[in-house]
Amino acid sequence: MSGRVRLVLVRHGESVWNVEERYQGQADSGLTAAGREQAEAAAAALLDRFGRPDLVVSSDLPRAWDTATAYLRHLDVEAKQDARLREADIGTWAGRPFTEIAEEHPDDLAAIVRGEDLRRGGGETFADMRRRVWQALVDAAAMTTGDATVVLFTHGGPIRVAAAAALRLPVPGHLGFAPPVNASLTVIGYAGELKNNAVVEYNAPTTWAARAARAD
What we know:
- This is Histidine phosphatase family protein.
- InterPro entries: His_Pase_superF_clade-1 (IPR013078), His_PPase_superfam (IPR029033), PG/BPGM_mutase_AS (IPR001345), PGM_Phosphatase (IPR050275).
- It holds the Pfam family His_Phos_1.
- The protein has helices at residues 16-20, 33-50, 62-72, 98-104, 106-114, 126-142, 156-166, and strands at 5-11, 55-58, 80-81, 148-154, 185-190, 198-204.
- It has a single domain (5-204), classed as Rossmann fold (3-Layer(aba) Sandwich), CATH 3.40.50.
- Strands 3-2-4-1-5-6 form a six-stranded mixed sheet.
- The protein is α/β, with parallel strands linked by helices.
């Protein structure tokens, strides 16, 4: 990397558990029919706005990879998979309805709202996720030369912590960012670890049908 890198973070399309209002974490429920349509809309928006990217990287979870596939069909580039772009590990909460967790763990949820960084379901902390996600972005930027565009397909939690990290907000600074809607675009201008980075755009929808999950 020798220039400023435009990091375009794309949230995956609508998943089955988004609709059913279940926590997902690193488990996966697959895209809905609407989610596949959203992936196509995101692909069209990416091509129109940014042209051919210098690099494409995706979370290896199916809902993100399937969203990336809709975009890659229009390009002659291969995407790299990076497990560091996965959603947060939320342990035993994965796959469970929001309402059940609210009933069983009200104190944990209240603590999270207050800004405490708990291991939800015995998984990882937000600080853990932020470190791995930010390093994935730094490594992706390092693979480019000059002014470049990197498109990354990921999840709501990673997008929020990446925005907070770009602005050097202390953990849990991501709580100030609303959950990104499905198939939305967030753009980070990355200049280097010791330079000023910018959140150029946050949570820009690519389709009217997009929705935000209530949880990461």
